[in-house]
Design brief:
Length: about 160
Amino acid sequence: MCEVETPLCYPVAAKLTPAVMYRYCDKLSTNGEDRSPEAKGCHDSYTPYVQRSLANKMFSHCGAWCLYDFDKPDTVAYSWNEAEKCWHRGSGCLGHPEQKLATERKKDFCEAELCIPVQSILSETLMLSYCTLTRHAGIDGIVQQAGTQERLGCQMM
């Protein structure tokens, strides 16, 4: 008699694709919720976290309107907002019985270092920090052309 080996841990899905979602569900939407690669958070900054959570099946079943954050399933949840067609971050799904399933599932993932950009808008402060880093690398943000100076988007201090 053969024994089926169970993995020590489940690999983390780095990106939400149709192929990834079809491993879990036979449709990208069952009850109106969006589980496609175009799924979005109701605030743009939530979208990468929503997509990572969907890619790693941080929901209990294919028609679920509750989704739990991949990194913090015990404290961060999203609920499907049918009117706006997006995942709303809030407390509506916290404490729901499905949350325990997501929290338990999280324990079964292999350790992985994945980077999700948290800066969704290029602010002046962020741009200046990039320019400061660039200057330290020996580039000052100004190009000499035919005797004139042309600014490249960095404010000179």
